[in-house]
Amino acid sequence: MSHPVKPNSRKYKVGLIQMRMTPDPEANLESALKFVREAAQRGANVICLPELFQAQYFCQREDTQLFDLAEPIPGPTTARIAEVARETRTVVIASLFERRAAGLYHNTAVTFHTDGSVASVYRKMHIPDDPLYYEKYYFTPGDRGFQAVDTAFGNIGTLVCWDQWYPEGARLTALQGAEALFYPTAIGWHPAEKEEFGTAQYDAWQTIQRSHAIANGVYVAGINRVGHEQGDIRGNRADGQGIEFWGGSFLADPFGRIIAKASHDSEEILIGEIDPGLLEDTRRNWPFLRDRRIDAYGKINQRFLDAGSSLPELK
Question: Residue 59 falls within a domain, yes or no?
Fold first, then answer.
């Protein structure tokens, strides 16, 4: 007996590029474009680069000269990535330091269609400010909202690094039809903390993203960099011990199972398959979207719900 074809059942492959960054931004861009071509040769249809792949992670210090790394979108780098997307007939996700205007900068992920045109421009919504992650100095929070976009292969959503800790962003992107969420990332260990906290930190990072996959019935990809960095840009580096970026890029399926995972210390291209049919099956058997109590979530847009709600409102 034949079985009916499920809706949206066409499979496609993703390529997750885990790479090491040098002090030379041009060399990093050339390396990234080479990785994109290799991923395409290996059958990837949608290819994602790590967060801010053109430079070592410069947010380890506050330095006005580092704003010179930013460029407009569209600009010279988007033109080169668009050319490779068109050449390889792939969808490419690239995380860039965007100069929107004088004194106004964003941490931005651009998705390119297979013809090189821009499919979406997503500006990182959640901006951290932690030791060696001084991003609030450089980046204005995003103002374009959470986005899902139809591509030649499927509907995908892109968020960036610190966004990955927030279930609200994943939910709002999935509710727009995204089958897969991509998180370009730059995250690692403080060397002095690694022995005591390193395993738990990586486990938490992976677990929260797997939970997004489960709660929303979508694929989730975390794409990280590797290597020890001190934010070295053309020979100028930050003080201190730097950050050991932990790699460990992965792809999880709609039930949170890890179907591809990279090492913690090597450059790699992960190839994984997106199967919309599996997404359909998972959601039919675990219908979390069906059972959401959207009538009861009205207060989710408040910062915090103070105890004793009957008390007079504080001014």
Answer: yes
Residues 156-174 as b/e (b if ≥16 CB within 10 A, e otherwise) read bbbbbbbbbbbeebbbbbb
For the question of whether the overall pTM of this predicted structure is more than 0.85, the answer is yes
Q: What is the CATH number of the domain that holds 196?
A: 3.60.110.10
Q: Is the pLDDT at 268 greater than 50, yes or no?
A: yes
71 is catalytic: no
* φ, ψ (nearest 5 deg) of residue 194: -60, -45
| pLDDT given at position 307 | 74
Domain interval for residue 214? 12-291
Say how many domains are in the chain. Answer: 1
Q: Active site residue: 13, 51, 179, 229, which one?
A: 51
* pLDDT band at 309; cut points 50, 70, 90: low
- The DSSP element (H or E) to which 203 belongs, if any, is helix 194-216
Residue 134: other Cβ atoms inside 10 A: 18
161 catalytic per annotation:
yes
Q: At what angle do helices 167-174 and 194-216 cross, to 10 degrees?
A: 30
- Distance, CA of 113 to CA of 152 (rounded, Å): 7
Tokens of 156: 């995908």
| Annotated catalytic residue, options 48, 59, 98, 161 | 161
Let me know if 51 is a catalytic residue. yes
pLDDT, one tens digit per residue, over 59-103 is 999 999 999 999 999 999 999 999 999 999 999 999 999 999 999
Q: Determine the Cα–Cα distance for residues 163 and 232; give it in Å rounded to an integer.
A: 25
**Of the listed 48, 59, 98, 124, which one is catalytic?**
124
Edge-to-edge strand list for the sheet holding 12-18 = 118-123, 104-112, 91-101, 46-48, 12-18, 268-274
